[in-house]
Every structure is written in C-alpha cells, then in structure tokens.
Design goal:
It is built from no helices and eleven strands. It has strands at 2-7, 10-13, 18-26, 33-39, 45-52, 58-60, 68-73, 78-83, 92-100, 103-106, 110-115. 32% of the residues are buried.
Length: 116
C-alpha cells in the first residue's frame, strides 16, 4: 500500500507563488508517473501536470503551462509542484496521484486559494 500526503497549500494573492509537496510512503515506491490534479468547488477533478518517474519527462495542462513546474526527488520519494503567477482561477484543492502497474493512489489534497 502506498500513502500520499500533500502539503504546501494556502492563501496567496494573485500573481504570487506557492510550492506544493507530495510525500510518498509505504512499501517500495516505483510508479510509472506522478501527477497533480485539482478540483475547484462545484467542478470535476482536472489534470494539472505529470512527471514520468524514471525519465523526468513532464506534461502540463494548457491552463498552467509556463506558470507551473512539476519535479520529483527519487531519493526522497517526493513530488513537487512549483506554482507561479497564480490566478484566482487556480483556486482549488490540489491532489497528488501516483500511477503504478499495481494501481493508482491518491492523496487527500491540499487547498490553494488565490485572492484577486
């Protein structure tokens, strides 16, 4: 079983920055990819960014491209999401996701609120 715990969310003004972290624990961790999703109030969960664990290759949603950067630390089993130039529409609960052949795991999320 893999546990994912997100941290780093909070309240920030538009134009500001936040760095989210996701810590993985449990059995030996070797996902194919780690992803960040977000869910705004009253909306569905949407993909934000992905990093392939072995190669570091990344993908981003168009809405965050150029503003957000996903990275991973293999030695620490950590994933990060650096968010810059935040907008009110980035307000959401951000979830960490691990995709393995054995299954998919989710954290409980960390809230991000961007004030205008």
């Amino acid at each position: 079983q893999v546990q994912l715990v997100e941290s780093g969310g909070g309240l920030v003004q538009a134009g500001g920055s936040l760095r989210l972290s996701c810590a993985a624990s449990g059995r030996t961790f070797s996902p194919y990819a780690m992803r960040w999703f977000r869910q705004a109030l009253g909306k569905g969960r949407e993909f934000v960014a992905e990093v392939v664990w072995s190669t570091g290759s990344t993908q981003y949603a168009n809405s965050v491209k150029g503003r957000f950067t996903i990275s991973r630390d293999i030695a620490k089993d950590m994933v990060y999401l650096q968010m810059k130039s935040l907008k009110p529409e980035d307000t959401a609960v951000y979830f960490c996701n691990a995709y393995e052949i054995a299954g998919t795991y989710w954290g409980r999320g960390t809230p991000v609120t961007v004030s205008s």
